[in-house]
Amino acid sequence: MHLVGITSDMVKMELKFERLSKFNRGILYKLLSDAYSFDSKIEETYKEKWLADDNFFFDNLNIGDKYCFITTFNNEPIGFFAWDPRNLPNYAIIGDNCIIPMYKGKGYGKLQLQEALNRIIRNGAKRIYVSTNNELIPAQKMYEGAGFKQLDNSMLERWQSAQNADIYYVLNINM
Fold first, then answer.
1. For 119-168, how does the pLDDT look when each residue is reduced to its tens digit (9 = 90+)?
2. Rounded CA gap, 172 and 175, in Å?
């Protein structure tokens, strides 16, 4: 008997990026809570924001379906991605981006990020900003691997105070 390994084509067949409206309210909070379950301080810090974001997108599904998507594997939600388009075409800001622990380290986060970048670029963004924290080394590596460059924090003082993050990146889109 010969066993064949999983190929990237097989993963792509099982991995889907679904409209938010296919899911129930609370899914965004659940995915974020699961994704950051390794550190209870993160949920304590962001719980109110996560709940507010979940409510906002479900109260405004026309926005949620356009600027947020749920990543599924074998039809099970494993992560999601959302961005703020209000400053297009000058720039977009990546909001939440997560993959639950059972699926981390398998390339799904990179595929999810690439899907999101493609969507943001199709919406005309000239730049894409994202922030993260010092402790989230895999996220830093993923953003840097996608071409994001770290910014001098002093450039984004107003954004910094709103994001509660340590590291800020920008991706310049060459049209």
1. 999 999 999 999 888 888 889 999 999 999 998 756 555 544 455 677 88
2. 9
> Nearest Cα to 51, choosing from 80, 24, 30?
30
Transcribe 60-106 into DSSP letters: THHHHHHHEEEEEETTEEEEEEEEE-TTTTT-EEEEEEEE-GGGTTT
User: Which residues touch 32 (CB under 8 Å, ≥6 apart)?
Assistant: 43, 46, 50, 96, 98
Give φ, ψ of 131 to 5 degrees.
-125, 155
Instruction: Kindly give the interhelix angle for 27-35 and 40-59, rounded to the nearest 10 degrees.
Output: 160
What is the β-pairing status of strands 127-132 and 92-99? Answer: parallel
Residues sharing a CB contact under 8 Å with residue 63, sequence separation 6 or more, in sequence order: 56, 57
The pTM assigned to this predicted structure is 0.85
C-alpha Rg value of the chain to the nearest Å: 16
Distance CA 95, CA 87 (A): 13
